[in-house]
Amino acid sequence: MANKVDVVICGEVITLKSNDEEAHLQRIARYIDRKLAELTAANANASINERIRTLLIAVNVADDYFKATDSLARLNAMHDKYVNELGRMQQEYALLKERFHELQGELTHTKAELESFVTEYDSNYPREGINILTLPRDNKRKATVR
Question: What is the reported pTM?
């Protein structure tokens, strides 16, 4: 159902009929009123007939529209770039996570091999209950397993 809304543009009350909400129509009226005020202020000394004034307002509105459209296109391009970058980063994260799990497995395997080596070493070379993994360490010298 169409709404009838009274708006004020350039001091004149105009009745608009639209399916849009009143707040939206009032916003448009304020925008056009501002554009008229800007045009009037910029051309205060000039005598501009109604037709020229209407055309100038149309040019100003079209200028704003195309600037907004261009800005939206740039924002969409940036959005697409960021979405692509996010997708690339998610793939990289998945690969890094997979590599991390591989390295964890290798570490677990290496620890098991070391424990097996220590157990075998201790059984072949008993030294009064001392395990090479539990030897006291000197702060100045690091114990190394060879």
Answer: 0.56
β partners of residue 17: 4
CA distance 32 to 53: 12
Closest CA to 145 of 104, 122, 81, 123: 122
Which residue type, as a one-letter code, is found at position 47?
S
* Residue given tokens 């690969």 in the structure block: 95
Beta-carbon contacts of 50 under 8 Å, excluding residues fewer than 6 positions away, are none
Query: Tokens at residue 102, please?
Result: 């591989």
How far apart, in whole angstroms, are the C-alpha atoms of residue 33 and residue 31? Answer: 5
Give the burial class of 16: count Cβ atoms within 10 A of its Cβ; 0-12 exposed, 13-18 middle, 19 or more buried.
middle
- The two three-digit tokens of residue 138, written as one number: 């000197």
Please write the tens of the pLDDT for every residue from 56-107: 889 999 999 999 999 999 999 999 999 999 999 999 999 999 999 999 999 9
Instruction: Give CA angle at 93 (89, 98), nearest 5°.
Output: 150
